[in-house]
Design brief:
Blueprint: E1 2-3, H1 8-14, E2 21-27, E3 32-40, E4 43-45, E5 49-55, E6 60-67, E7 70-73, E8 75-77, E9 82-88, E10 96-106, E11 110-121, E12 127-130, H2 134-137, H3 141-158, E13 179-181, E14 186-189, E15 192-194, E16 200-202, E17 217-224, E18 228-234, E19 240-241
Parallel strand pairs: 4-11, 12-14
Antiparallel strand pairs: 1-16, 2-3, 3-5, 5-9, 6-7, 6-10, 8-9, 10-11, 13-16, 14-15, 17-18, 18-19
């Protein structure tokens, strides 16, 4: 069974102990405004998730951060009185220090721009060598068309951003089985380098119940070529589990 990794849980534990406060100044045509930005953690590893929290006026029309050319929307948290959201760090992001742009618009009052830094550290994910039947590796045209269609469908699904945060507390394992294949493992199949493993594999007996790892809305139930029978949950703020 293949499940999307949820590294966000560890960052919630850090929230009380290592708050990192940065001062971000935004300017509009009318006045100078100060925004406090919190990045947890400030140093993030390849393939992990970073929580962004910004204190600013609740009247903002929209707010998002931009990392490596990708926009990550933020949502207003009534509970904390802050704008919060998640940045996903791709596994192949080069290690180094990056600038993250914060872009905010306020109805009729102008646009605020700011930048804060985020450091990405390298991870040795390891390599796995597999030998599989050629029909599972060198796909025929009909199968390639199916894979392409499913990939576009998933990409479109994951671009949907739900303002509401649906998850509560820590995430749980969907099954209690041992970890058999870890996240990010590079794969060489039949001597060819293939896409790395983007989930975690947990052992379970056939027929064992599979639990939702947290509160969410089921947005897809379908038999997919690579992942088989799949259920995808939207936990809000662009956070999904599969």
């Amino acid at each position: 069974m293949n499940f999307v990794s949820n590294p966000f849980q560890q960052f919630l534990k850090f929230l009380i102990f290592i708050p990192v406060l940065l001062l971000l100044m935004g300017k509009s045509a009318s006045a100078e405004n100060h925004f406090r930005v919190e990045s947890l953690p400030r140093v993030v590893k390849q393939g992990e998730v970073c929580l962004i929290s910004i204190v600013g006026p609740p009247s903002l029309k929209s707010i998002y951060v931009e990392f490596q050319g990708v926009r990550f929307p933020l949502a207003f948290s009534e509970q904390n009185g802050t704008y919060e959201g998640l940045i996903g760090i791709d596994m192949d992001t080069r290690p180094g220090k990056y600038e993250v742009k914060v872009i905010m618009t306020e109805g009729g009052s102008g646009t605020y721009l700011g930048v804060f830094s985020l450091r990405v550290e390298e991870v040795d994910f390891g390599i796995q060598k597999l030998t599989l039947p050629s029909a599972m590796v060198d796909l025929d045209m009909k199968t390639l068309e199916r894979v392409d269609k499913e990939e576009k469908k998933l990409n479109s699904l994951f671009r949907v951003f739900r303002d509401e945060r649906l998850w509560r507390g820590a995430f749980i394992r969907p099954v209690e089985g041992d970890l058999s294949v870890s996240f990010g493992l590079g794969r060489i199949i039949n001597g060819q380098r293939r896409s790395p493993h983007t989930g975690v594999d947990l052992r379970a007996e056939e027929g064992a119940p599979i639990l939702a790892c947290n509160n969410g809305i089921v947005v897809l139930v379908e038999e997919l070529f690579f992942s088989g029978k799949s259920v995808i949950l939207d936990h809000g703020w662009g956070f999904y589990s599969m």
